[in-house]
């Protein structure tokens, strides 16, 4: 009879721990916001010349790399200019001058332009190629381009460990995903993590390399790193248990996983589950 009671108690504890673990995972959200490249700098826009060229307030002309828009004298030329004007409706835009070839034969700056749309900074080349390809006369690659046009149109599959809810904000709107996986097109993104208040996590640069990425947020949102060495390990479990029985003192803020404002045996069990999960991922 006692053995049955003990087994039942253990089962209840395990269920409670799993429930807590899942509640934590589903309470957090990742917010992915498209932004400008790290090399880009703000410039003052004067006016739109046509669908692929702008003029800055200092008089400089900028030829956007990666596509040829229809000329103003051609059927879709005026619409292409209007579309660029709609995207770049604010005075400040961001410019990244091409590192490999900074000017063309006409003396115009060659570069990549980001404008603020829907709360994100979007690369103009990508907006023309993916959103309004009808306004593009032809894709353009004249070596050496720092960012060939296909970098913007490549699709990347990004998986977030330990977070299921994802919000993506880009040039076409705001999108919500619930399975921890999202497909992003080439570009630069700021990643934030939170439940009620969001904190900056990292910058995600998707301009080359593998088209499948995994971002591990387990350590970030689940904490449990009692020894503050940046890794969840058995030593963290031992330290939490020693803290519970009064042998050592650990930082409750980094230890408290289950949100009850104390560092207790439940946190030790959750850390153990996280370590097991990490091992399982490493073996698959």
> In percent, how helical is the residue content?
25-40%
What is the CATH topology assignment of the largest domain? OB fold (Dihydrolipoamide Acetyltransferase, E2P)
Indicate the mean pLDDT: 84
Structural class: alpha+beta
**Which strand order spans the largest sheet, edge to edge or round the barrel?**
12-11-1-14-15
What is the number of strand segments?
A: 16
Shape: elongated
Query: Gap between N and C termini, in Å?
Result: 40 Å
Q: Which residues sit in consecutive blocks of at least 5 with pLDDT less than 50?
A: 20-25
Using the coordinates above, name the CATH class of the largest domain. Answer: Mainly Beta
Task: Offer a concise description of the structure.
Helix content is 31%, strand content 34%. It is built from eight helices and 16 strands. The two termini are 40 Å apart.
Topology:
Layout: H1 2-27, E1 29-35, E2 41-50, E3 53-56, E4 61-64, E5 67-69, H2 77-87, E6 92-97, E7 109-117, E8 120-123, H3 124-131, E9 136-139, H4 150-153, E10 155-161, E11 165-170, E12 173-177, E13 181-185, E14 187-194, E15 198-206, E16 212-216, H5 218-222, H6 234-244, H7 252-255, H8 265-283
Parallel strand pairs: 1-11, 4-7, 10-16
Antiparallel strand pairs: 1-14, 2-3, 2-6, 3-4, 5-9, 6-7, 7-8, 10-13, 11-12, 14-15
Helix pairs in contact: 6-8
């Amino acid at each position: 009879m006692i053995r049955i009671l003990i087994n039942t108690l253990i089962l209840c504890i395990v269920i409670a721990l799993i429930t807590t673990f899942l509640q934590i995972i589903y309470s957090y959200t990742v917010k992915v916001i498209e932004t400008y490249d790290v090399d880009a700098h703000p410039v003052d826009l004067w006016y739109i010349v046509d669908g692929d060229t702008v003029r800055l307030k200092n008089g400089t002309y900028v030829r956007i790399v990666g596509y040829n828009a229809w000329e103003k004298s051609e059927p879709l030329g005026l619409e292409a200019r209007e579309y660029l004007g709609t995207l770049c409706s604010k005075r400040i835009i961001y410019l990244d001058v091409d590192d490999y070839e900074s000017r063309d034969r006409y003396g115009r700056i060659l570069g990549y332009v980001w404008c603020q749309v829907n709360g994100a900074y979007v690369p103009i080349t990508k907006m023309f190629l993916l959103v309004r390809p009808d306004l593009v006369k032809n894709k353009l690659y004249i070596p050496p381009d720092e960012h060939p046009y296909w970098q913007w149109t490549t699709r990347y599959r990004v998986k977030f460990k330990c977070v299921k809810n994802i919000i993506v904000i880009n040039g076409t709107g705001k999108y919500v995903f619930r399975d921890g996986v999202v497909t992003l097109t080439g570009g630069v993104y700021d990643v934030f993590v939170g439940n009620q208040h969001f904190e900056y996590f990292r910058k995600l640069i998707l301009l080359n390399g593998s088209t499948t990425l995994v971002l591990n947020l387990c350590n970030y949102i689940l904490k449990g790193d009692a020894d503050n060495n940046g890794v969840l390990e058995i030593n963290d479990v031992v330290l939490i248990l020693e803290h519970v029985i009064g042998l050592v003192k650990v930082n409750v803020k980094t230890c408290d996983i289950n949100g009850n404002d104390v560092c207790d045996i439940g946190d030790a069990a959750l850390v153990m589950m996280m370590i097991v999960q990490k091992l399982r991922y490493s073996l698959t």
